[in-house]
């Protein structure tokens, strides 16, 4: 005989544990939403089930008679059975308060701690009350650093857009590492507490924290190699400089190569009037600020996969005349043995690709060559790179030769 589908005391506890994990019980301690008194209806045996297995039904009733009733009240329902007479069945349990429920779950200490942390909020931080009700379990997760978190937020609210490095923030027990570890939470709070004019909405996420709230950020660096010994800077060919410094260089190069793979950048052959910039995936905002690059002949070398063409597409939004390097079907099929599977291909429409580029992108996206075909740029033979560079040089020399 299958187990009767009647609510047991263990199932009641499991249901309340779910409500606790959803934060319902804790949130009720801050604001009465009407959840309490909390009435939970019990699934109980029917008169047919009582007749079929009276012993099981009686054991079920006794399990509720001996249940931990000190924290809840039981509503009973009387039934009349034609052969068994009058019987009382538990119909529902009622918890009067959040405190009763927490005590039943043996979480009285957690509830008290949550209330204590909520009461520690300064009066002027009333804007966080809704956040506390929405994320009560996160409050408990941050119980230990709570005073430091409040201290950091208080300082920033009192000094909006301070124009200093996080390292310069002097608060007892608070260092840069502490802020780095709690940027997500601090950002949520600051968005609720700071006036709109104190938040630069162009920056988001953990990496944008400093710029979003007016701190000085670690300068972005651009690494590049000069591929022509005549263009060295104080004898140096491999340099990393800030974006602002790079924008001022206005180097007398004629041809610029951008490659995502560092080893490719290091091993890139000499090119008269050339330089190679070490790319960083989708992050081209820094290069877009370098006006003198707009007049250069730019070649982008990325992986032959959907993301590689998406990055080329994004790069071309900043530099419309960019040409791809070794990102064509001939290169792909010349390295068939080096193909791997792209783990998470994209399926976006890319508006800044040429017809040939778009056709190759579509073929990769639609798995025309196989599932998730990908050729990483580091597997492209350098002999082929040398051939392409020689062809570029010849084409350039030919154009120059016919000029008047």
Automatic annotation (TrEMBL):
Domain annotation Wadjet protein JetD C-terminal: ranges: 214-388
Name the UniProt record assigns to this protein: Wadjet protein JetD C-terminal domain-containing protein
Residue ranges of domain DUF3322 in the record: 9-191
